Amino acid sequence: MKCNNAWLGIDNPFLTALASGFELHEAVVEDWLALQQAAQADGIDCQLLSSYRNFHRQLQIWNKKWRGEATLFDKYGVALDYRQLDDNGKIEAILTWSALPGGSRHHWGTDIDVFDKRAVEQCDNGFDLVDAEYRSGGPCYPLAQWLDNNLSRFGFFRPFTEDNNGVSVELWHLSHAKTAADFEQQRNVNALADVIAGADMEGKDAVLSRIDELYHRYVLNEGI
Ligand SMILES: [Zn+2]
Questions:
Q1: Ligand 1: distance of its center to the CA of 150 in Å?
Q2: 97 alpha carbon to ligand 1 midpoint, in Å?
Q3: Residue 103, domain CATH
Q4: What separation in Å is there between the alpha carbon of 174 and the centre of ligand 1?
């Protein structure tokens, strides 16, 4: 296949911009718009929070968290004391909620984070994109239930549904199964290690010293 860096968030040739400005893989747009319209018809204002994200953007997120410029959370969503974390503690705290640069499913344009915009605006509590907001009593609970019942009709699935000490449960994260499968097959730890080694990335020696384990645990999300 051509463009084999696309899975790493580099030179993805398949992107198309929606009217909202969000970028998606061209093979995903029709199913996404159909899902959104069906949700709308059922009274759910399903909107994008995040879609395609390139390597550079993921690198910025990583570096910001590594430097303590953004709050780190444990898998229960409890804020961690940055000063108490050694390099491995930082790596695990970041990867619980954010991907390695090069290892994010958002690099593919096939994966999206969604929320119920109208419900969030009506509830007036701000919005943190945390699990409780998608559970009973939260503003995005009707959306989460609607997705449980309808997601697969539009070709989507949730890749992060189990707490296995890898990536935390993300009820908001959807993936277009058929399109994402092509990228899943291209993933390999050597190419990921190469791109990280060449990046201006905080903590990269600590990451590269355990890249095989991190790749399986967080990129393939096999957990431990
Ligand atoms: Zn996501």
A1: 19
A2: 9
A3: 3.30.1380.10
A4: 7
pTM higher than 0.85: yes
d(CA 130, CA 170): 8
Tell me how far the alpha carbon of residue 112 lies from the centroid of ligand 1, in angstroms.
6
**Local structure of residue 79 (DSSP, 8 states):** B
Contacts of 65-71 with CB under 8 Å at 24 or more apart are 65/90, 65/93, 65/94, 65/98, 66/90, 66/94, 66/202, 66/203, 67/202
Q: How far is the CA of 111 from the centre of ligand 1 (A)?
A: 7
Assess if residue 1 is contained within a domain. no
122: pLDDT confidence band, cut at 50, 70 and 90?
A: very high
Residue 20 domain-assigned (yes or no): yes
Return left, alpha or beta for 2; rule: phi > 0 is left, psi -120 to 50 is alpha, else beta: beta
How far away, in angstroms, is 199 Cα from ligand 1 center? 22
pLDDT attached to residue 224: 79
Q: What beta strand segments (E) does the chain contain?
A: 15-17, 23-25, 46-50, 111-116, 156-157, 173-176
The number of folded domains in the chain is: 1
